[in-house]
Amino acid sequence: MKMRKKIFAAVMAGMMLLSLAACGNEKEETTKAADTTKTSETTSEEKTTTEKETTKAASDLSGSISLSGSTSMEKLVTALGEAFMDENKNVTVNSEFVGSGAGIEAVTAGTVDIGNSSRALKDEEKANGVLENIVAIDGIAMVVDPENAVTDLTKEQLIQVYDGTVTNWKDLGGSDMPIIVIGREAGSGTRGAFEEILKLEDKCQYASELDNTGAVMARVAATPGAIGYVSLDVVDDTVKAVSLDGVEPTEENIKAGSYILSRPFVMATKGEISEQSELVQAWFAYINSDAGKEVIQSVGLILPD
């Protein structure tokens, strides 16, 4: 009888130990599950908080950005401004298109946030503390009226047309018709880049000097025998773009370096971008984003390397 009691007691003790062990395991698993749930909830909360902060940061942007300069950059600046304001409803982008030289003067004087220039900055401009921020690359297209039979010019022929050495299209394989040389006004970035590339500074014999890209397009389109230079991205079927040394003015040829007339589109600032206002820094951050790059390419420009 005593033996049976001892056996019974031992069995009961063993069962109690097993029960306690099971409870311990269950408690540990419950704790682990709770910790995992807590960690997951914390991560989710952190993610939600980050997203809210990001949205809040974007919506917190307010005020205005002022840009002035190149008429050739109007299409680009307008497209970027509209896209930027769509993402930042409390921001206004104010732009004026008065020529590259005037834009650089304005940013140097501090009367605008950004000076737009369709040419590289000059050493003296950089010496005044103006920084060259290249946002895109543009080709310069040589355009003639649609009825002109000439489709290609050599670099030397183009130089001779603009310095007045050649004055009739018959000398270039075209009709017996005077060449009407159209150019931009002094201070134009397009003119500056064109004359610099071809080493024609102070040598061009212009019949007309017009103050914006649209005016050059309209004059060439309406004037038999006219030739002019314009930003590649504005060329349409009202004019005809001629090849240079057998190379067409296309994005692919400009990237390859085979087309001779190309120039940078610059958004100049007085000092480093990091020294500018929060709003101007956000503007450049947008330009360098995937969305900004899409805008640049959508207006026919080339992304800088």
SSE order and pairing:
Elements: H1 2-60, E1 63-69, H2 74-87, E2 91-97, H3 100-109, E3 114-117, H4 123-127, E4 130-131, E5 134-144, E6 152-153, H5 155-162, E7 180-184, H6 189-197, E8 208-210, H7 213-222, E9 226-231, E10 240-241, E11 243-244, H8 251-256, E12 262-270, H9 278-287, H10 290-298
Parallel strand pairs: 1-2, 1-3, 6-11, 7-8, 7-9
Antiparallel strand pairs: 3-12, 4-12, 5-9, 5-10, 5-12
Give a quick precis of the structure.
This protein is α/β, with parallel strands linked by helices.
Give an overview of the whole structure:
The protein is α/β, with parallel strands linked by helices. It contains ten helices and twelve strands. The protein has helices at 2-60, 74-87, 100-109, 123-127, 155-162, 189-197, 213-222, 251-256, 278-287, 290-298, and strands at 63-69, 91-97, 114-117, 130-131, 134-144, 152-153, 180-184, 208-210, 226-231, 240-241, 243-244, 262-270. Strands 1, 2, 3, 4, 5, 7, 8, 9, 10 and 12 form a ten-stranded mixed beta sheet that branches. Strand 7, helix 6 (189-197) and strand 8 form a beta-alpha-beta unit. The relative contact order is 0.16.
Task: Tally the beta strands.
Answer: 12
Distance between the termini: 97 Å
Strand-residue proportion: 15-25%
What is the arithmetic mean of pLDDT?
86
- The ordered H/E elements are HEHEHEHEEEHEHEHEEEHEHH
How would you sum up the global shape?
A: elongated
- Residue stretches low in confidence (pLDDT < 50, at least 5 long) are 1-44, 46-56
Estimate the helix proportion, in percent: 40-55%
Can you summarize the main beta sheet? Answer: 10 strands, mixed
- The class by helix and strand makeup works out as alpha/beta
CA gyration radius, whole angstroms = 34 Å
Question: How many H/I helical runs?
Answer: 10
